[in-house]
Amino acid sequence: LTRLRLISCISSISASLAGVLLAEDVDTAKLEVRLVGGPNRCSGRVEVLHNGVWGTVCDDQWDLRDAKVVCRQLGCGTALSAPRESKYGEGKDQIWLSDANCKGTEASLTECKARPWGDNVCNHVEDASVECSGTDIPEPGPIRLVGGPNRCAGRVEVLHEEQWGSVCHDDWDLKDAQVVCKQLGCGDAVLAPIGAKFGRGSDTIWLDDVNCTGVEAALAECPARSWGDHNCYHGEDASAICSDSGITASTSVRLVGGPNRCSGRVEVLHNGVWGTVCDDQWDLRDAKVVCRQLGCGTALSALPESKYGEGKGQIWLTDVNCTGTEASLTECEAKPWGVHICNHVEDASVECSVVDIPEMGPVRLVDGPHKCAGRVEVLHENRWGSVCDDDWDMKDAEVVCKQVGCGSPLSALGGARYGRGPDVIWLDDVQCNGTEESIFDCQARPWGEHNCYHGEDADVVCAGN
């Protein structure tokens, strides 16, 4: 056993020197976990995905609190047991995690304290397992969501004849997305984006003209053309965003240049770039959808001719034709993304009834992949400083994401996942209940009082981008 541990240690050091085990190289929002070798998807050997490779978890310090996090992350109910010593068989290749030390409240295994990726003195005889209560959750079946932040949002792909393929967005709406979300056990449909919002598929297009009523148990039960019969291209791939993804309808639209966040020039997010909407055919029904999407009440007016200033860069949408009942502007009929004969003098605006939403406060997210993910920094005495990750959890992240206008939290991360702050550490032992309007309303130690170093800087990943 000593010899095996030594070999494992040497392998770990070699891999680290090769540069494949650096935590900062990981897109933590897309971390995956699975249970292998068990009687169902909610029991088995724990495996995590890192740098595109699946690996096991060592059972050193493995207990029911760690298992609780895995069960929650998989939507498998509560943890019944945390078996050690490879109860569900020995894994192969990498052992990714060891000495996992979860509190039990984390949303993801990566939020738990543990040794660095691949750093362990274990062998596969010590592979950790879990057994969860939720064995009655429906199998995902031959359908998946690809390219999104987690398994409950992304491009819709279906399995047919052992080949994955996408779904064309012709007639795609919230009823179709509802069936997908229910089939995956991801809650209710929030949005049914069209136009390959989560990237274009690379293989066949299996379904077209899907027309679900919303009560079907699987997408394959909905009326549609025959398998593989379509008149589409991958720029028309359909997507679904489900409630369990943490994404809200408001993350893909914003109002700019107005007196508050509920009035201004309409801008929509596409392919990671914000752009404006042309005022051709822009009317109160379109404005009504925008106001509802932002949680801004009813539409008071739909204004043409850049009332709130001319935008820059892309003009994404034109000839928008909403019925007024859609949950999102992207569900309305319109010309394809970026196709128009407009200029920014024609940028559309809206004015909504609600204006009493709090503005963003002195908090920011730094060094992340986009404005809604990064190291949490707060402003105090005209100086930006970081937050220690002691007691940092999803309730704290919920307050921060809301405060910076980035929707719901996807992850509450510690260990300086987005780099170490260069200056003071302002807050420690932050304990929000999740309903506060600002992180400054949460309980914490006095300003500047902590027992931390910048390797413990707190981070968040929010649903907005």
UniProtKB/TrEMBL annotation:
GO terms for molecular function: serine-type endopeptidase activity. Residues 33-133, 143-243, 253-353, 363-463 form the SRCR domain. The keyword Nucleotide-binding does not apply. One of its GO terms (biological process) is zymogen activation. The keyword Glycoprotein applies. GO terms for cellular component: plasma membrane. Residues 1-23 form the signal peptide. Gene3D superfamilies: SRCR-like domain. It holds the Pfam family SRCR. Disulfide bonds join C58-C122, C71-C132, C102-C112, C168-C232, C181-C242, C212-C222, C278-C342, C291-C352, C322-C332, C388-C452, C401-C462, C432-C442. InterPro entries: SRCR, SRCR-like_dom_sf. Keywords: Disulfide bond, Glycoprotein, Receptor, Repeat, Signal. Binds to extracellular matrix proteins. Binds to pathogen-associated molecular patterns (PAMPs) present on the cell walls of Gram-positive and Gram-negative bacteria and fungi, behaving as a pattern recognition receptor (PRR). Induces bacterial and fungal aggregation and subsequent inhibition of PAMP-induced cytokine release. Does not possess intrinsic bactericidal activity. May play a role in the innate defense and homeostasis of certain epithelial surfaces. PANTHER family: SCAVENGER RECEPTOR CYSTEINE-RICH TYPE 1 PROTEIN M130-LIKE, SRCR DOMAIN-CONTAINING PROTEIN. Interacts with LGALS1 and laminin. This is Soluble scavenger receptor cysteine-rich domain-containing protein SSC5D. It comes from Nyctibius grandis (Great potoo).
